[in-house]
Amino acid sequence: MALRPDESELRRLDLNLLPVFVALMRERSVTRAGQALFLSQPATSAALARLRAAFGDELLIRNGKLLEATPRAEALLATLVPSLQAIAATLAGATPFDPATDERVFRVGWTDDVGMAAKPLLTRIWKLAPHCRLVIRAANYRTIPTMLESGEIGLALGFMTDDLPAVAKQRVLRRGHFQVLRSADTPPVDLDAYCSRPHVLVTPRGDLTGFADAALERIGRSRRVVLGVPEFGLLRQVLLGTDLLCTISDALVEALLAPEAGGGLAADPLPLPTQDSVMRMAWRTALDDDPAESWLRAQVVAVLARRG
Questions:
Q1: Residue 15's closest CA among 69, 53, 51?
Q2: Which residues pair with 134 in a beta bridge?
Q3: Which CATH fold would you assign to the domain 178-275?
Q4: Alpha-carbon span 56 to 72, nearest angstrom
Q5: What is the pLDDT of residues 23-64, one digit of tens each?
Q6: Fold agreement (5-90, 178-275)
Q7: 195: three-class secondary structure by DSSP
Q8: pTM of the entire structure?
Q9: Cα 31 from chain centroid?
Q10: What is the mean pLDDT of residues 136-156?
Q11: DSSP secondary structure code for residue 1 in this structure
Q12: CA angle (206 as vertex; 203, 211 as ends), nearest 5
């Protein structure tokens, strides 16, 4: 069946951009609009650029510290707000989700390190939602934005940047520090030991430098990375009985040092100032009010979010 002209026009526009437009019109600031929608400033700016291209108008023009709406933008706002309110009301009446009986396929992308810490999450989901199925996709901070935007996944978990597409929202699950993992039969690590002992780097792309090298360079020191491995699951067998060190997030340290993990490893605080380790949860805006997806996000928070 051929599309009517009005339907063809709709296919040209990503409807997820419309809430961004309304927020920009309300806040008259890219930063504040992004904060209201849990979007980064670059993602909000990119959404504005796409809106301008879609409507063939500047829409909002900078005037001092504020954005001034064009006549075209004012007309669009008057038309769109009632429509968006009607859509929101329809979504609010979505079918309730009963995890004990309902069937649902959840599609989640997570980074390798989160996957190692996520066994309690899987156990909880299987216990509370026995008829649901879970598809896990390997992801990293480079691929997560594209996977969310394309709809390949509905939820992403990982140590990712906050530069996500306009179709996504996010929440910080935990903010911590990095630690130095070592074989338990080797001495604790201070800065001199950190610089003199050999290092292993988890590097899916094969790089042999990371954020710690930049931090060391800022204080006039350096380290020697002698081994790159593609995934965190290899660390135990690589580190045990060797002098190797590996710098990882405290969330991953908790998983690797848990009693059921097998023992033999120890961890020390990273002996130099670096960025925080930030685990984020991101999800598609279209699924924000979906009862099943909301339930899933609540389980993630219950298991992975840091308390206190």
A1: 51
A2: 106
A3: D-Maltodextrin-Binding Protein; domain 2 (3.40.190)
A4: 10
A5: 898 888 898 888 777 788 888 999 999 999 988 999 999 888
A6: no
A7: helix
A8: 0.66
A9: 19
A10: 86
A11: -
A12: 50
